[in-house]
Design brief:
By secondary structure, the chain is α+β, with helices and mostly antiparallel strands. 30% of the residues lie in helices and 24% in strands. Strand 17 and strand 18 form a beta hairpin.
């Protein structure tokens, strides 16, 4: 009997992906470990390996197909003596259009309870994914007509609905009293009728960014701490280090100093090296520092693990490799997930200062501005000129209180203004 090759879950958060490219053709003989396809998740393009041996009988999903659900059949694998099954097809709701509305996360907990409580009438035929979406959005499945086989409710039936018409009564009341009315894409487009614009479909990465950052701003109680840092000693040290490292083809950046300074600060203030885990706080032992890397259409935050134990040259080499692979979307999930603290540096783009959004479950993120020559008051009271960099630390108040955050930021400032302590 032919075996179904299923769309794999290549990361813990993956629910669907794009089958970018087939690396095999129908009739090819494959062995365990052979590469079958390239699959784009919300974060990266990854290679998918065969688990079983056999002959590729049929490719069910064309390459380039987006929104292919995890665990849906994408190909058939024939074992010895098997004949191709021409009737095999992917599930009816395996590939669907992207939703046009991103619902507000604030209705999720209430919606979850209400959908469960309404499941007391006649049985409602719906796919597991449709039931989960209904739970998350607070939708009443009794009000929705399914378009799947035998009237089964599938994801497509929930993706294009006006939320206010299908919410459970209590959720409708909550949304109307606590939030402004939600507009469908068609309603927004109507506002700009007669104006020229280009419609850009959301890819998986942009959907995840929108969801996570909306969640972050709505659920994380941010507070902000700001400091100016004098960089002159650091720039002198960097110049001397790079003269020596140039022989090895390594160049240390200011950002590498910042990574090291933050890693050591987290060790000096260990209580701040923590993350929010829902009903508890996880206090981390190692300093795993995430660094935002801009890529086309979004960003990655690759994580440098055990950064406190690594030399500046090691951090520079590792960061360069991670950034290059992030831009080509070749990072593995374990390389961009985790960490307790993050750094976002827009100084190289001339930005003086900004406030970064915390990437959950991190406890804080440091926003780094440009280093610029400024007039300063020297220790002897006279006026002088120094290279000053402005930083803002966004802090999750559930994890780190104000005084503790100030202590952590002071350690970061001390490390950067006295860079030779980074080698001690």
């Amino acid at each position: 009997m032919a075996l179904e090759i299923l769309m794999p879950a290549l990361s813990p958060t993956m629910e669907e992906g794009t089958l970018t490219k087939w690396l095999v053709a129908e009739g090819d003989v494959v062995r365990s470990g052979d590469l079958l396809a390239e699959i784009e998740t919300d974060k990266a393009i990854m290679e998918f390996e065969a688990v079983d041996e056999g002959t590729i009988g049929k490719l069910l999903i064309p390459e380039g197909t987006a929104n292919v659900k995890v665990n849906s059949a994408i190909a058939l694998l024939l074992e010895d003596g098997d004949a191709p099954d021409e009737t095999a097809r992917p599930a009816a709701d395996a590939v669907v259009k992207a939703p046009t509305i991103v619902p507000p996360p604030s209705i999720t907990p209430l919606g979850e309870k209400l959908v469960k409580s309404t499941n007391t009438g006649p049985r409602i035929f719906s796919s597991p994914l449709a039931r989960r979406i209904a739970r998350d959005k607070g939708l009443d499945l009794n009000k929705i007509t399914g378009s799947g086989p035998r009237g089964r409710i599938i994801k497509a039936d929930l993706s294009n609905k006006n939320l206010t018409g299908f919410l459970t009564p209590a959720v409708t009341s909550q949304v109307s009293s606590a939030q402004p009315a939600l507009l469908e894409a068609s309603s927004i487009e109507a506002i700009y009728e007669g104006r020229t614009y280009e419609t850009i479909a959301l890819d998986g990465m942009r959907k995840i960014i929108a969801t996570r950052l909306t969640e972050a701003k709505q659920t994380i109680p941010h507070f902000y701490l700001r400091r100016d840092i004098q960089l002159d000693e650091l720039l002198i040290a960097r110049s001397k280090i790079n003269k020596q490292l140039g022989k090895r083809g390594i160049k240390v950046s200011v950002n590498d100093f910042i990574i090291k300074a933050c890693a050591l600060a987290l060790q000096a203030v260990p209580t701040a090296n923590s993350i929010w885990a829902g009903d508890r706080i996880l206090k981390m032992k190692a300093s795993d520092v995430a660094v935002a890397v801009a890529i086309e259409g979004g960003l990655f935050t690759p994580v440098l693990q055990d950064a406190e134990d690594k030399s500046l040259s090691h951090l520079a080499t590792e960061m360069k490799d991670l950034a290059e692979r992030a831009r080509s979307r070749k990072l593995a999930p374990h390389e961009y997930q985790g960490g307790s603290f993050a750094i976002s540096n827009l100084g190289m783009m001339g930005v003086d200062n900004f406030d970064a959004v915390i990437n959950p479950p991190h406890g804080a993120i440091l926003a780094v501005g440009a280093g610029k020559k400024k007039a300063v008051v020297l220790e002897d009271g006279s006026l002088g000129v120094a290279t000053v960099m402005s930083v803002t630390m966004s802090v999750d108040h559930r994890v780190i209180d104000g005084a503790l955050g100030a202590e952590l930021l002071q350690e970061i400032v001390n490390n950067l203004e006295n860079p030779f302590c980074l080698f001690a």
